[in-house]
Every structure is written in structure tokens, then in C-alpha cells.
Amino acid sequence: MSANDQIFAPGPDTDVALRHAFGRFGTGVTVITTRSEIGPLGFTANSFSSVSLNPALVLWSLANASRRHDAFAKAAHYSIHVLTDKQADMALHFATKGDGFDVYPHETDAHGVPLLRDCLARFDCTHYAAHPAGDHSIIVGRVTQVALGEGAGLAFDQGLYGRFKAF
């Protein structure tokens, strides 16, 4: 931080600035999939994080205003796919559309959850908890199975997709 940095308090008048500040934290990119009453659904999220090794728990958050919120918040089973740097088109697709699985190669597990191919990692989960958190819900899943792929991860930083470069 420097003397020239803009300082503000979070609030309705500064939501855009707060969103930009949150975007300064680069993350990986995931697509979360589940089966719903209307069929398979997908959702792009960069809010994924590990929580615990024993039991194996992960979390992610979802906007309450999302039209997919209730389906994911109530899902008994879902899979979190960590995307490779070659899957930015998939991230963009599921960021705007919850369906359209015919565009991407996938299988379906015993619970009807779509499993996307060629991802860096996949965490198959059962619902563990959902917590209200402001204008989002924090969804916690218990990991029942993990699949590992190869490649480099897709990164999201300041509104852009890219690839992490080590130095």
C-alpha cells in the first residue's frame, strides 16, 4: 500500500470498488455440476477452497440472486471441476448458462451428476452444510472421491482468464 492508494469503507456507494478490490485476489477456476429437478446444471465459481482433511471438506459460495442458487444449495450430490488453462471457454459457458452439457464431453455418475472430462482435478461431494453469508450462501461439501488430471490450472485475476507463470 502507498500514500496514493484509494481508501474506502465497504457500503452501497462503494460496491463497484469493493468488487474490484476482491478481484485483485487471483484464484483458480472451477465448474460445479449437479443434477436438479430440471436436469443437469453447471456453475462457474472461483470461490472454491479446501476446509479440512479429516473429514475431507471443501467450500464455495453462490450468490443468493443466482437463478441456480436453490438447485445447488439443496443438492445432495455435486462435483467440483478444477479447470485447466485450456478450458476458459468452458468457464465462460457455465458462467452464463447453467445447461448446454452437450457442448462438452462428460459422463454422468450414479447420482445423475455430470462429470466433465479433461479437468485438472475433480472433487465429488455430498452436501455437508449451507450457511447464509450476506448476499451469498457458503456451501460446504464432504469429498467422497477425487480424480486427478494433468496440465496447468486456469487462473482468474482482475476479470481476466489466464495461466499462472512461476518466476
UniProtKB/TrEMBL annotation:
Q: SMART domains, alphabetically? A: Flavin_Reduct (SM00903)
InterPro entries in alphabetical order: Flavin_Rdtase-like_dom, NADH-dep_flavin_reductase, Split_barrel_FMN-bd
Q: Which PANTHER family match?
A: FLAVIN REDUCTASE (PTHR30466), FMN REDUCTASE (NADH) RUTF (PTHR30466:SF1)
Which Gene3D superfamilies has this protein been placed in?
A: Electron Transport, Fmn-binding Protein, Chain A (2.30.110.10)
Keywords in alphabetical order? Oxidoreductase
Kindly name one Pfam family recorded for this protein: Flavin_Reduct
Q: Which residues form the Flavin reductase like domain?
A: 22-163
| The protein's name | Flavin reductase family protein
Native species of this protein? Pseudosulfitobacter koreensis
